Amino acid sequence: MKKNLYLRSTFRDIRGSLGRFIAIILIIFMAVLLFVGIKSVGPNLKTSIQNYVEKQNTSDLQIVGTAGLTKDDQTLAEKVSGTEVELGYSFAYADEKNDKNLQIYSYDKTNKQNELKLLDGKLPKNRNDIVLDKALKSTYPIGSTVKIDDSQLSENSFKVVGYVESPIYVDKTQKGSTIVGDGSLDGYAYLPEAAFDSEAYSIMYLKFADLANKDIFSNSYEDALVKKENQLEKLFDARKTERKQELIDTANVEIQKNQSEIDENKTKLADGQKQIDAARQQINQQKGQLVQQKEQVEASGDESAIRSLTEAEAQVTTAESKLNEQEAELKENSKKIDDGQNEIDDAKNDLAELKVPNYLLTERRSNPGFEEVTSLSTRIDAIGNIFPVFFFLIGILITFTTITRMVEEDRKVIGTLKALGYRNSEIAQKYIVYAALTAIIGTVLGVLVGTKLLPPVVFNMMGTSYVFQSYPTNFWFIPIVIAIAGALLATLGATIYILIKDLREKPVALLMPKAPKPGKRIFLEYITPLWSRLSFNQKVTYRNLFRYKARMILTVAGIAGCCGLMLAGFGLKDSIGKSADIQFKGLTHYQAIVTLESDQTTEQADKAEKVINENTEIKQSLPVYSSQVSFKKEGITDQSATVYGFKNNNNVDDYFTFKKKTKDSSTDFDKDGIVITQGLAKAYDAKLGDTLTMQDGDGKRMKAKVIGVVDNYLGNSVYASQRYLKKISSESMDSNSFLLKTNSMNDTAEKKLSKKLQDTGQVITTTFMSDQLDKQAYASTNLDPVVIIFVVLSGTLALVVLFNLTNINVSERERELATIKVLGFYDSEVTMYIIREMIIFTIMGILIGFGVGNALTWFIITTASSPMISFPLVVPMIGYIFSAGLTILFTGIVMFITHQRLKGIDMIGALKSNE
Question: What's the predicted TM-score (pTM) here?
Answer without folding.
Answer: 0.70
